[in-house]
From TrEMBL:
<dbReference type="GO" id="GO:0016787">
    <property type="term" value="F:hydrolase activity"/>
</dbReference>
<protein>
    <submittedName>
        <fullName>Phosphohydrolase</fullName>
    </submittedName>
</protein>
<keyword id="KW-0378">Hydrolase</keyword>
Length: 176
């Protein structure tokens, strides 16, 4: 896990100037989602994939200044994976990012990692109210160790702004 944590920190540092004042909020969200992934799936071969996906899953909010961030987030992940010579992971991590706000169970290519990632993010977005049967005490301990710092309030403000700009598509990141 130490290598994955280092990779998360290294990637996030590159985006720190773009993320700006939201950096610590997003960093803690990234780590909570990553730890949720490891709670759900302890397969070592998936750990680095989860680490990379967590960093990039919402990054388009800042790189493209939009709440419609799934495609921009996928693009940033693709750039990184190509640069790091991990092109064989592009499709899987792209699907993890693209479907992480799916409101129903994901079924398709790379079902295991995509669905695990979806659940891990929903656990955090729901403030731990959704657990999908995973250890509530560990989820709560991670939330205490990595406080929210207003991340959810930030998302609510951004979504509210989008609602007034695009009332017919207020939540463009959600998928059925």
């Amino acid at each position: 896990m130490n290598n994955s944590i280092k990779e998360i920190d290294d990637i996030l540092q590159k985006f720190k100037p773009i993320i700006g004042e939201d950096y610590e909020k997003y960093r803690n969200h990234v780590y909570r989602v990553f730890l949720n992934c490891l709670l759900i799936d302890n397969k070592k071969e998936n750990e680095e994939k989860y680490a990379i996906a967590t960093v990039f899953h919402d990054i388009g909010i800042w790189t493209n200044h939009t709440i419609d961030y799934l495609d921009p987030s996928v693009e940033q992940a693709k750039i990184y994976l190509a640069k790091m010579d991990k092109k064989d992971w592009i499709n899987e991590i792209s699907l993890m990012i693209y479907w992480h706000h799916k409101t129903t169970k994901y079924q398709g290519e790379f079902t295991e990692t995509v669905e695990n990632f979806r659940k891990a993010d929903w656990i955090d977005v729901s403030l731990g109210l959704l657990t999908f049967g995973y250890d509530k005490q560990k989820i709560e301990a991670n939330r205490k160790q990595l406080p929210n710092l207003g991340f959810h309030a930030f998302l609510i403000r951004a979504t509210t702004k989008n609602f007034f700009r695009h009332p017919l598509n207020p939540l463009p990141m959600f998928r059925k």
